[in-house]
Amino acid sequence: MQTVTTLAELRPATDALRRTGTLALVPTMGALHEGHLTLVRQAQAAADHVTVSIFINPRQFGANEDLDAYPRQLARDSAMLEAEGVALLWAPQPAEVYPEGYATNISVAGVSEGLCGADRPGHFDGVATVVCKLFNQVRPDRAFFGEKDWQQLAVIRRMARDLDLTQPHVDAIHSVPIVREDDDLAMSSRNAYLSTEQRAQAAALPQAMREAIGLIRDGAPVSETLGNLRDTLLASGFASVDYAELRDADSLAPRGADTGNARLFVAARIGGTRLIDNMAVE
Asked: What is the model's pTM?
């Protein structure tokens, strides 16, 4: 596996890979787990070569969020990717991605509003900006993202369509289903922040979501069911619930009694850790 840290190194490296086949990109912020490796394997099945980026993007962290605390373990991550047969690791420093005087921002309306967009102002601007830059830097034929960050996926798809990024370089943005732990908790780098007690309590999140979905499918009132879901999480040890909402899976518009093509989205905090999850209702 080749590791590059500058654009001067990246462009000839990706050009060489493209001369011998198709190229897939898996963007990450590191602290890799089985969910990330699942993305890598899906990318390998769809393309001749895989590039993984590891970049902790400062522009998607708010003033009071965990940028400084976010786990940085490049040597470990690199070894995991090499074991998976990744061709190229793109691991730039912030100054390489946002050089002095950088002044451009990408904002995606609609799908970025509400849910995490409401709780994390500016977050999706940072996501859209860095992903657009990664597409331009790597110029992949395909890119792979996990469905745990469903709203992020919607933002990236909208941006790629609006800015014509799907042709000729990024032919398809592929989504990969959530990878879950044995107790059903969605895999996340932030799970490592949880204490042993908090980690046990966190399993209440997917359980409460599945129970709520079952009730909604059986015709229970959506508002009442979501209120009960919030109460269940608070009683299980969560400090707060940022949101528990039913939304259209494509447009992310709020949904009511009509649950066709709907997903349940939840964000809740346990200790100082914010966990998110989403599940299809039908």
From this structure: 0.95
